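Dear support,

We are seeing what looks like truncated structure output for some complexes. This example has two components. We would appreciate it if you could run it in full and send us the complete token output so we can diff it against ours.
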Amino acid sequence: MTRQAYWQRQVKRIAILLTIWFVVAYVMGIFLAPTLNQFSFGGVPFGFWMAQQGSIFVFISLIWIYAYFSDKADKEAGLNETDDNMSSASAAH
Amino acid sequence: MGIQEWTWVTVGLTFSAYLYIGYRSRVASTKGFYVAGQGISAIANGAATGADWMSAASFISMAGLISFQGFDGSVYLMGWTGGYVLLALLLAPFLRKFGQYTVPDFVAERYYSQAARVVAAIAAIFVSFTYVAGQMGGVGVAFSRFLGVSFEMGVVIGMVIVAFFASLGGMKGITYTQVAQYCVLIFAYTIPAIAIALALFGNPIPQGAIGEALPILNDLQTDLGLDPYSNPFVNNNMLNVFCITLCLMVGTAGLPHVIVRFYTVKSVSAARWSAFWALLFIGILYTTAPAIAIFAKTEMLQQFVNNGPQGFLELSWVQNWAETGLIDTAAIAALPEASAATVGPFLGAINRDIVVLATPEIAGLSAFIVALVAAGGLAAALSTASGLLLVISSSLAHDIYGKLINPNASDKTRLAVGRGMILFAVVLAGLLGIFPLGFVAEVVAFAFGLAAASFFPVILLGIFWKRANKQGAIAGMSVGLVFTFVMIVLMRTHVVIGAEQPILESFLGIKAQGIGVIGMVLNFALMIGVSLMTAPPPPQVQNLVEQIRYPRMMSEAELAEV
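Here is the complete output from our reference environment:
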């Protein structure tokens, strides 16, 4: 895979994950919270639960997915760091 | 033993541990001092980031704010966790690849301009001082209640301790101390929550006990004529809840003391994973906080209803806290009875900052647990303060002195200047703590607006848009920062200079805490507009942008391939 193709895939991955981030935090946790509050989730109004609990669990999962699949993509493209090619301070310029 | 004695034990033991760790990890080079030699593992950096992140505001004030705001307190919960998604996906891995010491370093290199460095360094100092003032205030509150010293004395004790390990060990000392502080603070936070959840609901998981606790609280609030706790937009309208949440998230991703933590890990991959660990560790506290908020509010309202105002004042925890002046006993004593008419003034008489520190006492837990919470609150405040002081010191010593005033200084001189700047910053921060600017969390919240309006757009476009240039960055950063600062001052005139009325109520309906969002939009718009109207950045800068996008080092030849 070329480095350009790698970068495009990374940007796409970031865009998808941030869309989920926005929907969970802003659409479910804020804009639709009054509506979702009509449904109960384990005794808690669902909009409230999303805003104060669920969203945080989703945020943690999103970073896990990003880290895991980026590692895979790095290796596939031959762009992963090994002991030989590690960047040290000020090496990038 | 009573609360006082146990507090001396827990605080004494944990502080000895911090000092020992700080002494063991002392450093002798600037690389060790600023970025811990870039040898920290992902999980240790995650824990250190968690401690760095969870400040006096998170530990001491947040659950209290949520407790009094109900649903609308979600802005802090989502705002201070959701920003890590932005940080992990958009900034941290790329800044690690860049690999220099400070955020102004990146800005200066990417925007090939020492002027941009100066603006960034000033912004970093400004944001960090705003933030550290809140921390020192938090230390004062915790010490004055638990060690029985005056508020001012508490601040001074905190200053001495922070100065000791921050100047000795730099980033390395701070990192390993923060790992220990994370352990202390997370135990101190969760153990009382578990004990209360178990005692009241027979459920050892506080997050799970919300299901049983919330309906009780909602009924209690309805009986007292208040809106149900879980109803949204009672204190703030939807627009402001949205803006404040976004502002806190983007601000989180733009805070220099958080960003710089990702410079300390071994690799780009470790930077991504350490963001995951950091948010996991932070999430433990942040999902527990709403449970504590609900438990505390339920207990307080129930005690008020059951005992009436006079009986409430005779409760032992109330008497303990009355001495600190954080409960307005005169106001409560003046209330005739517990009813819908008096519940508002009753809640108004209790300082939000005491909720977490007082919850174990409110629930009647043992003195040892109360003391543990004190040690945790101090760990939270001190770990954050030390991280912030290092940013202030590195901005002054590395960016201003080392890069501008005396670029030929030896490593030894730079290290000495760095240490000196920490001492200077500590004294200034202590003064800011003794003469506080408002509620701890409120002060801290403004740092986010400033960070959101200055750093986030500059770094983000610096990575994802090669065309972003020097003129755009300087214009965007300066205008974003100045606009946000002026707006906050205008809207908070009654707090800042003691005027009777704020000069400005809101801007387009957005209040002070969320105004950073507008500053950020201005910054983005100016950066894009001005960049497009001026010359593109030189080829070597565009190469640098290309380079930081890929984890491993790319050779010149590889980058030249199209």
